[in-house]
Amino acid sequence: MEKQNYTATLNTLLSSYQLHYQNLRSLHWNIKGKAFFELHVKYEELYSRTQIIIDDLAERILSIGETPLSRFSDYATNSVIKENPIIHEGKTGVKYILEAQNAILKLEKEILELSDKAQDEGTNSLMSDLIGEKEKTNWMFKAWLEH
Question: Under CATH, to which class is 3-145 assigned?
Answer without folding.
Answer: mainly alpha
